[in-house]
């Protein structure tokens, strides 16, 4: 199950310290690299790709800022390291808002920052592309993606993740379990007293992902505002991440979590039989973790290798079968794939297209108006 926010940050720092301690006995970090074998290009790549691999190995480092929990990303990091042992990886596990503002600040101040940014807040990623912060790169793997999953050779969808309603089976039972957004709104408004303080979601004024999912809900159906009214009547509480919401469900502190990432919810339900997961039948949003290379990447060739790895069949198979994030490529098999999800949920899926329209609600006036309407619906000012 994903780590709660405080644990996630400590774990990242702990791994960094461990790496440093292992290097402490070496006379020079380059001395260790001499014993690591040189990597070969992936099978089927053009011969010229060997130069990219060699340049990346000479850079020797890759800095990733991501919203994906380190525990979830670890199989990908391990597999990439197995392919390219001469490249050391620095992985920063951040919330979507923290990641975005940190990257922008470091970019503006021209300080050291990420080589690649990998975030579930699709709108914030689109805004970085629009600002000119994303490098252009024609990946040899992008042909394996659906047309909606890439934009201008500057950002790529790496996952196909449904957005879910999760609940505590001991507190929400039988016919109470909502199957549609209208069902959810009705439950929240009619049973507000019993659910008082027991419903949890993102604070969309503080969470980049929460705000993005809310705007996408509205784009599909106005039922969202009925849900918002219901959330207000139950005295909705907030959490910063899906992992934190699911942890509260697991302990019984919360009865229901709205707009949790389905990949995390399914993993939590496997680990705890008391957690239920609903993919609404009227529509289920499907978001993706968007990946981009920084225009100022200090290690641009290593960044290109990471992009190509995540988009490759090998990387996508790890995403689906080890990380459980749902692969976006159609040629990857398994239940945690776009193909498997489409077979299960069919026409209810609403995949969010990658492109400039993602950032529309980030316009200052539109953002303020949306937040104000949200607060009014909740009965909060």
Q: How many domain modules? A: 2
Helix content: 40-55%
Name the CATH architecture of the largest domain. Answer: 3-Layer(aba) Sandwich
**What structural class do the secondary elements suggest?**
alpha/beta
What is the count of DSSP helices, taking H or I runs of 4+ residues? Answer: 15
Q: Could you spell the SSE succession in H and E letters?
A: HHHEHEHEHEEEHEHHEHEHEEEHHHEH
Search tags:
about 375 residues; six-stranded mixed beta sheet; 15 helices; D-Maltodextrin-Binding Protein, domain 2; seven-stranded mixed beta sheet
Describe the protein's architecture and organization:
Residues 1-27 have low confidence and may be disordered. The two termini are 35 Å apart. With 381 residues, this protein is α/β, with parallel strands linked by helices. Helices cover 45% and strands 14% of the residues. The longest helix has 20 residues, at 5-24.
What topology emerges from the helices and strands here?
Layout: H1 5-24, H2 29-33, H3 49-59, E1 61-66, H4 70-83, E2 88-93, H5 96-108, E3 116-119, H6 122-131, E4 150-151, E5 155-157, E6 161-168, H7 181-190, E7 199-201, H8 208-220, H9 223-233, E8 237-238, H10 242-251, E9 256-261, H11 262-271, E10 275-278, E11 284-287, E12 290-293, H12 300-311, H13 313-323, H14 338-345, E13 349-351, H15 364-378
Parallel strand pairs: 1-2, 1-3, 7-8, 7-9, 11-13
Antiparallel strand pairs: 3-12, 4-5, 5-12, 6-9, 6-10, 6-11
Helix pairs in contact: 3-12, 4-13, 7-9, 9-15, 12-13
